[in-house]
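LOG
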Amino acid sequence: MPCPTRPDLGTAMHRLIREMRTRVPFATPEASLCRGPCRGCSKKLLEFLDTELEEWEDRLEEGEVPRFGDLKRLEKLATKVMAALRRNGLIV
């Protein structure tokens, strides 16, 4: 029986994806992404993260249940992308 205070892994993945879609500036215009020297291409990082999120959205819709490691990997990826965007001045 699942713990009542913790969501199941599918729900947790949905929440993580929703949070990333809210916090990560995917709609930033390309001109703003490439406006000077950067450490890591913001445009490519956003595209990569968006692709990863889309793949998980599709997998969840097909009924796949993520493992805890899948959640941690996606969270780590998002954290690294956000850090790069911060270094590039796109977010504070």
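LOG (cont.) second protein
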Amino acid sequence: MKIYVDAAVVRDGSGRENAPFKHINDAAKVAQPGDEVLVAPGTYREYVNPVHGGADTDRITYRSVQPLKAVITGAEVLKNWQPYQGQVWVSRVANSIFGDYNPYTTFVMGDWYFGPVDKHTGAVYMNDQQFYETTS
């Protein structure tokens, strides 16, 4: 079965070609082995967590209908930056933006990590450049 997704639709549909889902994760919830999820061009700011796995002979395929034109990202665009002090700017966001997992409350750590435990798993980017996190 083909399941359709298009971030540009005004109203969320059922996954049919004439009524696509708005989110890839909605398609991932219903996709079964052998299904193909066809994703329209656009930026999908979401977490995709498929419910069912495919099989060696019946995979679930996710495909951009125009190669390299569908982008899945966990990043959110913030436009409410305010001057704070000197060259420092601040933007405050509600914790609800993170859903069940806030990467700014979890430190990078583990038996594989030998650095100081003072950096969080979240990251901030501007113009494709990652900012460095400081402790103060």
